[in-house]
Give the backbone structure.
Amino acid sequence: MEDKGNQSDKQKEEKRVSGLVNNLLLPLLAVLTGLLAGAVIIAITNVDALTAWGHFFQSPLKALSATWSAVATAYSALFLGAIGNPRAIVSAFQTYFATGQTDTLYKAIYPFTESLVTATPYIFAGLAVALGFRGGLFNIGAEGQFYVGALGSCYIGYSITTLPWFIHLPLALLGGALAGAIWGAIPGYLKAKFGAHEVVTTIMMNYVAMLLTSWLLEGPMKASGYRPVTPTIQTTAELPRFFPDPLRFNWGFFLGLAAAAFVYWFLFKTTLGFEIRAVGSNPDAAKYAGMSVVKNFVLVMALSGALAGLAGSAVVLGPDLWIGEGFSGGYGFDSIALALLGNSHPVGVVLAALLFGILRFGATSMQSLAGIPIDIISVIQSLIIIFVAAPEIIRWLYRLRNIRVEQTVLTRGWG
Amino acid sequence: MTIILELRSITKAFPGVLANDHIDLQLEEGGILALLGENGAGKTTLMNILYGLYKPDEGEILIRGQKVEIHGPNDAIAHGIGMVHQHFMLIPVMTVTENVMLGVEPTRSGIILDKSKVAARIREISEQYNLEVEPDAYVKDLPVGIQQRVEIIKVLYREADILILDEPTAVLTPQEVESLFSILKTLIAKGKSIIFITHKLKEVMAIADRITVLRAGRTVGTVLPKEVNPEKLATMMVGREVNLVVHKNPPRPKDIALEVKELFVRDERKNLTVNGISFDVHKGEVLGIAGVQGNGQTELVYALTGLLPFESGEIHLLGKNMHRPTPRQILERGVAHVPEDRQKHGLVMSFPIYDNLVLCNYYLPPFAKGASLQQRVIISNGDNLIKQFDVRTPSGQVAVSTLSGGNQQKVIVAREFSRPIQLLIASQPTRGLDVGSIEYIHSRIIEKRDAGTAVLVVSSELDEIMALSDRIAVMYRGQIMEIVEASKASKEYVGLLMAGIHPSEAQKAAAEAEQGTEVERVF
């Protein structure tokens, strides 16, 4: 009897450990490994380091130090650009508390707040894809939903001029969510009604959305002037900013966190969320239990689209204030990777979004300060995702083999 | 007699499980050794070691007294070991000859396949061992029993002396089982040696020369059939005394709960698989639907539970005519369904036990208040059911996928039986379960019947049908051959109906069989 109790405790413990490994350790190691692999790429693309290696036999130390300095310069530029200089931040706060002087403070916190601004659409779009995954659907269409969401918010934002902000702003957000929801619901409906695979239809919907945007920027939504851009939105539709220019940190970030909390509550604490997860994990059992699988396809895609649409709204109503060509920068596509990294869990998505925000924004200063091309960040992001998607590599690299973990199935392939 | 194969102290550990713990086993030349054990006792692991699919952590394998190393199926075949898997490894669109030669294709001048040579050899083997098979027939056209013969021929073609048969009777009708047994007897008469893996006690008693019983990875003992009886074997297998007979009182049937009239159903590939079926089930009785797997039972149950729309006919559930019912409408009318495929329909494997226990009523109070799930109620409900239905698990929080098959089935039974129900539809309720779990689930089903629930049991296991049913409907090719009172039906008679023999002829044949006349084999 006692023996049995011990064993079950041990099993519980093993279960807990393996859960922890799966949810935290593996993504963290994946990020670390991605950064290390990125360092190798930075080193072998650095001219100074390469030259030094050419003279390796004359002065081996020089080769190593040149490599080290190349990598260190790059990553410290990334860190300074994305987070800021910690010492400067501390002293700026001290000055502020002592004298009330804000100039240095704003300057010091600019990098970090701007990283958060970059992370904001990632949070929304990541939640969108994660929700799809939970419902068993592979929403590749976040990019398109992002565009139409932005268009919807933007139109409401600039065309209505007589509303107070507390009506205008929610209306603009709602417009974005609704546009995204419709864009997402179409593939959902096609799947439910005709069995069209959502991967195919959402990819096609992306092209439609992008070309629709181009046309609208050239025509109906074009601001007066030469360039294909929309008019700037009214101040009543803006997401309020916390600091004066150039700091663009705004309400959007906290709306993103609220959205994450909502998605968490919705998925894990409501009957609808229960259905979505059941349909996502085993549609046959869901049908057996009396749930409507096809209804869930439409519902999940609409909600997912609404969240991706809000990502677009957060960009246009927050930092950008208008839409120009190529304005997304691939948020929708990155968010697929991001949802994978976050294990399709709202908390994981927020953490992954912060990482992506930091990498993306830090990359700009890495380019200007250290002369490292911005694309290296895309490479690092891709490497991280490869390591997340193939956890066996990480297990093998770090000798995590003996810990057994069941496979979490994100989607069930085609069909 | 000489020992042709000996396993000494074989040990194999998987993370967290000791699958084989110093197992010893001896196979006599020209004998049939039955390897008996519950699911998870380590039978399959042991045979996979013998076939070279796993490497043992410890222990040795001796063939004819010589120590051998087996690194893969090819080594095993070279040592004369052949395996007939539970799930046949045949390619349906190929002929018998093509299937047999697969992997060892003989050629003429290096490139041209020499099929006629193989076909001739197959005829030779067929004749030698009484295995009638047409070499040019396509495998997809053959009944399951014959497909199994093809597997055996495959093994013999590769000149195996030691045949391992993994649960060979799971897919066969009673008549096919008998003909398999006579084949096995021919094989040993010609000097082959056989390991027969099973968890069915009666088969073991009928065919084995010696019986080795495994439990929880250990050898419990090796016995001769004449020294034991099924009860004793069951005790060895399970480790405690087991009730093999379902004790039940005579039924007290009341009103009709389910009435089916002229039902036609097409399966997902649009084949008409249920072909005009009518029957009824009363409250307080068990109607058993017997039949070999694949005679329309699956689709019948799907239609009754709303998983598949039916073509025509009527389903009256508790007096209400159900037109195009959805699964939820059926559930809400008080129907419980223990599905045939527990992992496909019965459970969401990645969900915790708690959530699986409310899979059908999560949206109803007390489990939900409006849209919000009442986690605390769901957990206390789960803890109660886990205790009540004896689900063996460290906690209700773990995913069902971590449970054994028997415990997974208990989760389903707990969920379905704990709802207020009028009709219970149980499809293959004990498939793949061990003796202990079967005993438990059978007694629960009878309990429900005695409480006045109408019960429909669908099973391809004739023993199960005979044990549970008050009336038996036999299905063959989408139709009901006959509905008989269980108390008046012999097992032989029902078996013949399952094979599609017309009732009048079946009656005659069954009567003859009872008088000891040799019954002409169906296949």
